[in-house]
Amino acid sequence: ALNMFASIAQGDILFRGATAFQLLAAGTAGQILTTGGAGANPSWATAGISGLLVVKQKPADEDVSSSTTLQDDNDISFAIGANETWGAIHIGLQQTTGSACGCRWKWAGPSGYAGRLTSWCTTPLMLLTDADITVGYHNPFSGSMGTATLFINVLRVVNGVNAGTMQFQFCQNSSYANAYRMNRGGILIAGKIS
Questions:
Q1: What phi, psi does 179 have (nearest 5°)?
Q2: What pLDDT digit, counting tens, does each position of 87-101 carry?
Q3: Is 183 within 8 Å of 93 (Cβ atoms)?
Q4: pTM surpassing 0.85?
């Protein structure tokens, strides 16, 4: 039994396994020791909030012209694992660039996702309360907005067994040559709940 202690290095941890004492080699710098609960061995995990929190900002304007087909926003999305629940706040700026095209939005996700969406927009004043996130699309406004106006999306997503990406999508509600625009500066803050 004493020979086992001869191979222990600084930072190693001795723990009781299922049938005998075992050695857990030192982790890498910054890792933390985690427990698997009763009947499981401890292990090292990466410290911090990686995989639990996503923060993104939209660095450039993005336009959709002459299209009522939803397109992925280049910047606003987050990965979601199987059977995970996430909450997110998406604050953005939107406008039409000269025509009354209106808009369509959707939060698309992996097969089997579910959730609720609440949206608010300053001009034209719009409130979408506790809507089903999986519908074909939401129609936040019709008409035109010559200057960028603020909107806020608050969502809760309960994912099924398929990991994937929660993706914000947008397009015109009526096809016009002038664009419907997602302006630069919007932000996404998304966090894993469970």
A1: -90, 155
A2: 999 999 999 988 788
A3: yes
A4: no
Cis peptide leading into 42, omega within 30 of 0? no
Tokens 């469970």 correspond to what residue? 194
pLDDT score at 167 = 98
Indicate whether 55 pLDDT > 60.
yes
Tokens of 63: 């336009």
* Amino acid at site 100: A
144 pLDDT exceeds 80?
yes
**What pLDDT shows up at residue 135?**
94
- DSSP string computed for the chain: -HHHHHT--TT-EEEE-SSSEEEE----TTEEEE---TTS--EEEE-SSTTTEEEEE--S-EEE-S--S-EEEEEEEEEE-TT-EEEEEEEEEEEESSS----EEEEE-STT-EEEEEEEETTTTEEEEEEETTSS-B----S--SS-EEEEEEEEEE--S--EEEEEEEE-SS--SSPEEEEEEEEEEEEE--
Retrieve residue 20's tokens: 């005998």
